Amino acid sequence: MKKVKALQAAMVACGLALTGAVFADGHGGPSAEALSYSCAGCHGTNGLSSGPASPTLAGMPKSVMIETMQGFKSGDIPATIMGRIAKGYTDAEIEKMGDFFAKQKFMSAQQSSDAMLAKKGAKLHDKYCEKCHSEGGSIEMAVEDEVGVLAGQWKPYLHYSLNDFVSGKRPMPKKMKKKLETMHKKEGDAGIQALLEFYAGK
Ligand code: HEC
Ligand code: HEC
Questions:
Q1: Cβ(43)–Cβ(57) under 8 Å?
Q2: Is 96 in the pocket of ligand 2 (CB under 6 A)?
């Protein structure tokens, strides 16, 4: 029962009303769906975030969800809030949420994109990022490549992420580091901005 109480508290904290949903999954502990309700206040219903600083989680590959949540837990991935939230969940619970969000349908965030900059961003993406974030960082390929989705993700969230990578606050794969740093050296923050406009327009 303790867990249910904690969950209720988390939901109240998110401004959600508890509506008597079913919390047990028959194997002990709350169901994947019930666990994921507590994320909805910030990440939107079924993981489709409507707030630009909280990323969309719908469709996120399970492996990426697990890695990211573990990174938040250990402090390897810098966070304003997820460090505290992630620490509240066991590995088994994170797995369940990973299954849940992977099954939800991704939709591109509704946001503006500067067409001129996006054109430049497309070129930069092809040169530096496409190898691992294929098809312009699309959700379909993110699932196949087991990377985070870039196309249609919220621009402000991606901006924070890229700044954390560039400044060295957040670790990244070695090869990505090389490419991102080379891009940033050559193009500066304008290069980052162009990439962001490209992903926002997809
Ligand atoms: C109070 C708001 C809030 C709640 C509740 C919340 N998140 Fe987050 N989440 C954020 C923010 C903001 C970020 C960006 C990182 C940061 O600054 O903490 C984020 C980032 C993430 C990311 C990284 C996504 C990516 O593309 O790399 C994952 C995964 C995530 N959250 C999972 C969850 C899960 C699972 C829950 C529910 C157990 C949850 N979050 C609850 C606000 C929230
Ligand atoms: C060698 C492969 C590789 C290259 C090249 C690469 N990435 Fe990545 N990227 C990854 C992997 C793997 C992850 C997931 C692991 C992680 O987050 O550390 C990732 C994660 C990310 C994330 C985090 C997504 C999230 O939801 O928080 C962003 C943003 C990103 N990459 C942007 C870029 C950009 C922009 C470029 C080009 C300048 C690039 N990457 C080049 C492999 C690569």
A1: yes
A2: no
